[in-house]
Each structure stands twice: as structure tokens, then as C-alpha cells.
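If it is no trouble, might I ask you for a protein's amino acid sequence along with its C-alpha cells?
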Amino acid sequence: MKNIKVLGFGSPILDVLLKVEDSFLSLVSGEKGGMNIIDTAEQERILAKAKEMHLDVKYAVGGSAFNTISALTYMGLATSFLGKTGKDADGEFFRKAYKKIGGDPASLKETEDAATANCICLVTPDSQRTMRTNLGASTLIKAEDVAASDFENITHVHIEGYQLFFADVVKKVIQSAREKKCTVSFDMASFEVVRLFRKELTELLPLVDIVFANEDEAGEFFDCKENFDPRNALEKLSEICPVAVVKTGADGAWIKGKEEYMHVDARKVNAVDTTGAGDLWQAGFLYGYLTGKGFEYAGCLGSAVSAEVVQLMGAELPPETWEKLKAEFKINE
């Protein structure tokens, strides 16, 4: 573990969590549930209305790849994160929060041209989340932001598929990782991303060591959504990447490498919120894989971490849950 350091590449997002009544949603554009992109003016209007109504606001650092990196940090691996924030109070909050849990924020870039990305999460009494996201500074990441120093002492790089909107940056990150002999994992992110960037994925995945996909993403990539068979999709992905994972939600996950092939069951729990479930599954798997504990351990840890997070609101597990998981899986021993 002392020789492992993982770099995440993604959008650093500050989650703004608000518990609201359904009536509050009438003040917000769009429908209940899901995620819509909003601009800074709309973001400020929503937050001003929340302040006017004296609603409690909770802040949490997030973003797809960051959720994975944060979990790896809690499990004791050295980590850093590449992305761009605004040069503002929210950006400073993000850096301090990441540093507090033991992460290295040195690779976080900043700009004065936009605010740090925010996701306003409006949580109604039925536990449903209505998300309104302003991607802000995270969209200003450029290939020239990626420096050789970001890869010093890095042994593995994890990339979120949402970064394909900046495909030239993804290419630079993978190229830099390869030059430093790092292994690379890639999360397909969403079927919409796969649909938009199938050509780019076809070019980039052969350069990746581990690919993570859920059934919707794999079905979209291979155009086999009807009569989808995760084993067939897994076989096809494994012909592209040395290690392939197809996650099937409550039905667990299929994993294939050069010498190992298996199915890992999901833990059965009462799910409250699936936000971050895939991100944390990947963290569990990567911890097991990178520490050489094999697919069975890695997959079971992924399932366990994922099962814990779906029982809570948000993508952050409390310290006592991490202590329980560390004891069960003998993490850091």
C-alpha cells in the first residue's frame, strides 16, 4: 500500500444539500427528480430562496470520480485529484475537505473565469433527490492544465466518462499515465455519454487496463440493449481491456480478466438513495485489485461498500461505517 498512489480525473463538484417540501420544487425550473443543468443566475436564485426560507444547507464534496477517490482515501490509499475549481470560497472548501480526509489536492487547478461547480440537491420528504447542476469551472479544464508533475509517484489513474466532453484532455491524461507506466481505469459514466462518444470510446478503451460499465452503458456501447446478456457484453469488453466489469445493480456484477472470470452477488439491503453506488463499488474493487487481493475480494468489497452507501442520502459514508468495513475486510492489515 505504501507504494500505491491513485490519481482521479473528473469534475470536482460541491454538493449543496437542501431538505425541502414538495412545494419548494414549484420554484425550480424542470420536473421533480433527475438532474438538469442550470446557469449561475438560476443557481443563485435557488440558494437565495432557500436562505429567505431559512432552510438548513449542508455542503459535501462530490463528483463521480471524486466519490471513488474519496472512498479509496478513507480505505487508506494515497490519492490525488485532477480537475478544475473556481478561485473562490467553494473551491477552497473543496480543497480543505479533501485534504482533511488525507487526500493530496496539489493537482486541483483553479480559474477566476467561473465559479466552482455546484449541484443543488433538493431532497423531498419521500427521499427523492431533484438535482440542479451548474458545472462552472469544471468545464474549463484544458489539455495544457495536465502537467507531468500531476503524475509524480502515481501508480494508477481513474477517469470518469463524463470527461469525454473534453476528449482532448482525456487523451492527454491517458498518454501521461502511460508515459509514467501507470495503470488506468475508466468508468463509462452513463448510457447518454456512451451514445454521444462511442467513437472516442472505441479509440480510447484499448489504452485502458480496467473498464467499468453498467448494463445500460454496455448495452448502449455494443448496441444490444434488447435481450441484453451481461456475460456476452463482458466477453466483448474483455477483448478490448485486460480487466472488464459489467455491473447489474441488485443482480451483482460480472468480472473478467486474463485468468479470472466470476460473478459477485450484490448485498441485499433497503435502498434509500443510489447516488454514488457505482462510484463506491468501483472504489472497493480498485482497492482489492490494486493491493493484489484478487477479483473475489475486490468484487465482494465493492458490493459491501455499495450496499452501505445506498442506505444513506448522498455518496459519503460516516467514519463508523468505514471502521466496520475495515474490520470485516481486514483493510490496512
The longest strand covers residues 78-86. The chain has a mean pLDDT of 94. The two ends are 10 Å apart (CA to CA).
